[in-house]
Amino acid sequence: MFASGKKQSLRKEYDVVVAGGGASGLIAAKAAARNGAKTLLVERQGCLGGVGTTCYVAQYIGFFNGELQAVWGTPNEFLKEIVKAGGSDGFTYYTMAEASASPINIYNFPFNPEVVKYVADDFIQEENIHVLFHAQVADALVQDGTISGVALQCVGGRIEVAAKAIVDATGDATVAHSAGVRFLSDSSEIDQKQPTSLVFRLSNVNVKRFRSIPRERKRELALAGIKKGEIFWESLSFMSTPGGHDAICLMSRIRGLDMLDAVDLSEAEYVGRRQVQSIVKFLQENVDGFEKAVLANIAARVGVRETRRIHGRHVLTLEDILEDRQFPDSVALGCGPVDVHDPNGSGITLMMPERPWQIPMRSLLPDGIEGLIVTGRAISATHEANAGSRHMATAMALGEAAGTMAAIAAEGGASTAGLDPKVVRGRLRAQSAATSVEDCHRPDG
Ligand SMILES: Cc1cc2nc3c(=O)[nH]c(=O)nc-3n(C[C@H](O)[C@H](O)[C@H](O)COP(=O)(O)OP(=O)(O)OC[C@H]3O[C@@H](n4cnc5c(N)ncnc54)[C@H](O)[C@@H]3O)c2cc1C
C-alpha cells in the first residue's frame, strides 16, 4: 500500500473498494478518487496493468474505431504519461492478424510493459487512494442483498474491509460470483469460449527483415507450421517495444480448458510453456528475422480471454454493436474490431463496426444486488459482444464509468440501483470522457 511514497495504515472502511488493478480497475480507482471517494485498490499481483503488464499483452486496442478516436478522458491521460516516460511512441496503424484469412487494419498503441508498470504506480498517486498489492479479494460480504465490503486474503492472513460501493474489476467477476450474482456464462461452455494464450518475448529479432516478408508468404508459413503441429494459430503477428529489436508474441493457443478450474488453469500454464518452446524453435528455423532470436521472457501467467460474464440489467449484444443502438444511459464507447478467436480451431473472425458503439450503464449493474458495479471484460454482454468490448481501451473507458458511478453511489449513501444516468453522464463528460460519438471530435488530439 502506498500514497505519495509514504507508508499509511489500511482503513477499516472506504467509500469505494476496487477489486483488481488491471486496465479497468486502475482507471476506476483514479476516477473514484477524483470524484472525492476514499478508495482502496486491491491487486493480487505486485504491479498494476493486468493483462497488459502481467501477461505481456503489450498493445492497447480499442481507442479508435476506424479513423475516429472514441476513448478519451482519464485513459487518454494515462497514454500521454506512458509516452512521456518513453514507454511508447504513440498510436500506430498496423495490420492485425496479418497471416490470418481476414486481416484488418487498425490503430493500436504498442507499449513497453515494464515502463507501464511504473507509470501506473505514479498515475495512481492520489490523496485518497490506497493501493494494496499481493492481496486477493476472496469473498464479498453481503447483508440483505447489499454488498457491504470484501474479505481480502493477504500474506499475513484474512482482512475484512467495509465499503459503500464495490467495483469488481477482477476480469473473472470474482466479487460478483461470491455475492451470488447470476451469470450469462460460466464453466459449462468451455468449447464456446475464446482460447487462452501464453505470451512470450524474443530478443535479438531482425524486425525489419520480418516485416518485409509478403503477407502471402507469412500465411503460407503459418499454415505449414499449423499442419506440422509446431505452431497453434494462423498468425505470426507480434509487437515490438519502442526502439527494441524484440518480438512480443501472442502466438500460443490453449483450448478446451476451464480457466475457472484450478487444475485446468495449472494445466494451461504447462501447455502454454510447451507451446512456447515449439513456436520459438519454429520461428528460429523457418522465419526470416528470427534466425538469431533469443527467448527473453515468458509472461508470469497465461492471458485469459473469457471466463464469467454477469447477467446485468442490460445484456449488450452484437446487434447493439453493429446496428449502432443508442442508449440514454450510455457511459462508455466501444471500438472495433470485434475479434472472435475460434474456440476450437486455429482461425480468427474480425469485424469492424461502422461507428463506435454505446455501452449502457445497465450492463455494469448486476441483477439483484445493491452496491456492486462490474467493469472490464466481465460486463453483461453476449459472447460475440464481449469479443468487441473486452479490449483494454474499452476496459479503461468502462473503468472510468464504473469508478465515477461508485463515487456517486457512495456520496450521501445513494444506491447503485438509484444511480441517475444523467448525473453519471454529466460527470463523465466533465472528466472529458466520451459517452456518444458527438463527444469524440476534439481539437486536442
Ligand atoms: C492473450 C490475450 C491477448 C489479448 N490481446 C489484446 C490486445 O492486443 N489489445 C487489447 O487491447 N486487448 C487484448 N486482449 C484483451 C484484454 O487484455 C482484456 O480483455 C483486458 O485486459 C480486460 O481488462 P480488465 O481490466 O477487465 O481485466 P485484466 O486486465 O485481466 O485485469 C484484472 C486484474 O484483476 C486482478 N485480479 C483478479 N482477481 C483478483 C482478486 N480476486 N483480487 C485482487 N485482484 C484480482 C488481476 O491480477 C488483474 O490485474 C487480450 C487478452 C488476452 C488474454
Automatic annotation (TrEMBL):
Single GO MF descriptor: metal ion binding
Keywords, sorted A to Z: 4Fe-4S, Iron, Iron-sulfur, Metal-binding, Oxidoreductase
Short name of any one Pfam family annotated for the protein: FAD_oxidored
Protein's name according to its UniProt entry: FAD-dependent oxidoreductase
Organism this protein belongs to: Bradyrhizobium centrolobii
